[in-house]
Specification:
The structure holds 2 protein chains of 2 kinds. By secondary structure, chain A is an alpha+beta fold. Chain A has 9 helices and 37 strands. In chain A, helix 1 (28-43) packs across helix 5. The termini of chain B are far apart. Helix content of chain B is 37%, strand content 2%. Chain B is an all-alpha fold. Classes of the chains: A alpha+beta, B mainly alpha. Chains A and B meet through strand 5 and helix 5 of A and strand 1 of B.
Chain lengths: 572, 90
């Protein structure tokens, strides 16, 4: 692998990107998805995250353009140069440009995403049969409104699944009309237009007015390419017209007749001999995902590799099942390192991966007896069967963890396990919550024991319960604690001395001076967003937990350790 | 042989972009564009030795046989679709 001179790279890991415009070749959602997947290629192997912005300046500005598109490095029409990107830095640095004279696809020909219809946006299935005929392109057959459609399964007659294909009669993209459809005819500079046009533009993009009169309303949008749109010739973007007449013969499909290079072409009007309007028929195109993944490699600081199978090799080749080459991985690790800490995993939203060893099951403790049968509650609490063989080590995410009577309690779906400080860290359980705290729902968001009163508080959704021994108060609304009605749940609680507690939800926490008075004094914003799920104090340290992981904060309020709940706390 | 032979005709298509570049012109353009060779001097002089050296460098980068000559596979590589970022930075 190679990096740019000076090892240019981003000085932060939370990279932003913005898609400035779209290609007419693919639906916007397909393009969004291709770019997102291309970024994921790199975020999967690094601590980097990629967040899409919809306005303002992003680190990586992504755009389509043709020929001279304003950066001093013009594209060269169809084929040849496909795209380029600049190494990390300010301004144009980090930006990625894609040549819109290419036919952008998913690499295997037109991927036609449908809209409306009854197929929920599925891709067209080519070929499909309809009325005893096979179709390899969208068709207007069977419709009087001239809207192109396709079946999204092989047999329309059997499955009746269909959607409409991209058409200016359905929508436009970019422009200033919020995607409204073209209005035909429309007036532009006093002339009347019956279809999309490139008039008035130097970049060759086809556009239309979305009102009857562009001169008056100035409302426009760009026309999406139909799946039969031609490339190049003198009718770029216009659909093939079948049948068409060429040298007196009738053609129902693309032909290479008349050309010495064997390339397939079609006429875009019914008669080439009289109109001479034509273009090349669509080929497999270039995979926007693969090219974008390569360009984003540049935008992150990787230069071209001379390993033929590496993504950063300068020449394009289509691969069906893409995965990064070792050379690419080593290159990006050289710049940004690899995923090492649970923090990275959490930041990137990967919560369920990783080894899940099945350890030995601890013996159930004496009091109360672990449940082996389904219990019935006398309250509204839902009963829950307890599987005695279930090990807490098999659980990736506990509902809450808290300290009660000096013992750590791990709660999950109506059961809990107890790790006693008296029995040298031995784990007991599972026990049924419904036996000991029958009023409490199966799933609790947070629980804690008030050190001053020994009352145990359970929170579930917008309600809470307070247990004093066997007697229970509640359910009561968390609004009674002074929390706003918009708070949907209490995600965590942290004891700060006797009678004082911090209640957490999302990025906010509330400082409770005394639970007896139920007065909420201050609302703060935590620095880490959506980080806290449950908090527990263990010998002077506070453990902020989310999913499988914890952050340990010492008495100096410094996070001095990040680790796994199951391995470090449960000793799995 | 009973099927009548369709007479193949070659037609000039309006708007057809014909890239009438010789292989040597293509190579010079490619080597300069992607950083293997400096842009031509004002005199237009480019020595054979420097072209050969640039070709070898390009062939090494592309994983081709390093012949230093404009062979078939090198021309094919130069015509293949690719990224516009230069391979060699000045």
């Amino acid at each position: 692998y190679q990096t740019f001179q000076g090892d240019l790279k981003w000085d932060h890991h939370d990279i932003t990107y913005r898609i400035l415009n779209y290609s007419p070749d693919m639906g916007a959602s397909l393009i969004d998805d291709a770019f997102a997947r291309a970024f994921k290629v790199w975020s999967d192997v690094t601590p980097l995250t990629f967040t899409r912005l919809f306005d303002g300046i992003a680190d990586i500005m992504v755009s389509f353009g043709k020929a001279d598109h304003g950066d001093g490095y013009p594209f060269d029409g169809k084929d040849g140069l496909l795209a380029h990107a600049f190494p990390p830095g300010e301004g144009i640095q980090g930006d990625a440009h894609f040549d819109d004279d290419e036919n952008w696809t998913l690499g295997k020909g037109a991927a036609v995403k449908t809209s409306f219809g009854n197929a929920e946006g599925a891709l067209c299935h080519f070929p499909f049969s309809f009325g005893g005929k096979q179709y390899s392109t969208c068709t207007t057959e069977g419709r009087s409104d001239n809207l192109p459609w396709c079946a999204t399964t092989a047999d329309y007659g059997r499955d009746k699944k269909f959607g409409f294909c991209p058409s200016e009669l359905l929508y436009t993209f970019d422009g200033n009309s919020n995607g409204k459809a073209c209005v035909f005819p429309f007036v532009f500079l006093g002339e009347t237009y019956e279809g999309c046009t490139t008039e008035g533009r130097s970049d060759g993009y086809r556009w239309c007015s979305t009102t009857e009169n562009f001169d008056k309303d100035k409302k426009f949008g760009f026309c999406p390419n139909r799946d039969t749109a031609v490339i190049g010739g003198n009718s770029e973007g216009e659909p093939c017209h079948f049948p068409f007449v060429f040298l007196g013969n009738k053609y129902d499909s693309c032909t290479s007749e008349g050309r010495g290079d064997g390339r397939l072409w079609c006429a875009t009007t019914s008669n080439f001999d009289t109109d001479t309007k034509w273009g090349f028929c669509q080929d497999r195109g270039y995979s926007l995902f693969l090219v974008a993944a390569h360009e984003f490699g540049h935008a992150l600081g990787l230069d071209h590799s001379n390993i033929r199978n590496a993504l950063m090799y300068p020449m394009y080749s289509y691969v069906e099942d893409f995965s990064l080459h070792k050379d690419d991985v080593e290159g990006i690790h050289y710049l940004y390192g690899m995923i090492l800490s649970p923090c990275d995993v959490i930041r990137k939203g990967i919560f369920t991966t990783g080894p899940d060893p099945i350890p030995t099951i601890p013996s159930p403790g004496p009091d109360p007896k672990p449940d082996t049968t389904t219990t019935k509650s006398t309250t509204t609490t839902t009963t829950h069967p307890v599987d005695p063989s279930q090990s807490p080590c098999q659980i990736n995410k506990f509902d809450t963890i808290t300290e009660i009577d000096g013992d750590l309690h791990f709660f999950k779906d109506g059961q809990y396990w107890r790790m006693s400080s008296k029995t040298d860290g031995g784990l007991e359980g599972p026990f049924s919550m419904s036996k000991r705290w029958p009023a409490v729902p199966v799933v609790v968001d947070t629980a804690f024991e008030d050190l001053a009163t020994k009352k145990i508080y359970f929170f579930s959704g917008t309600r809470f319960w307070v247990y004093t021994g066997q007697s229970v108060l509640g359910p009561r609304s968390i609004e009674k604690l002074g929390l706003s009605s918009t708070v949907e749940k209490v995600e965590g609680a942290l004891q700060r001395g006797k009678g004082k507690v911090l209640l957490f939800n999302g990025e906010n926490y509330w400082r409770h001076f005394t639970l007896l008075c139920t007065i909420v004094c201050t609302k703060h914003t935590t620095r880490e967003r959506r980080l806290i799920l449950v908090i527990v104090c263990i010998v002077g340290n506070s453990y902020f937990c989310r999913d499988s992981f914890y952050w340990r904060m010492n008495s100096n309020r410094q996070v001095d350790r990040v680790g796994y709940v199951k391995y470090d706390l449960l000793n799995c | 042989w009973c099927v009548p032979l369709k007479k193949s005709v070659s037609v000039t298509f309006p708007g057809d972009v014909l890239k009438n570049m010789t292989d040597t012109e293509l190579a010079n353009s490619y080597l300069q564009r992607f950083g293997y060779m400096d842009v031509q001097h004002r005199s237009g002089f480019q020595s054979m030795a420097s072209t050969s050296k640039a070709l070898m460098r390009m062939q090494r980068q592309m994983g081709l046989e390093e012949t230093g000559t404009l062979d078939k596979s090198t021309v094919a590589a130069m015509k293949a679709p690719r990224c516009g970022v230069p391979d060699v930075r000045s």
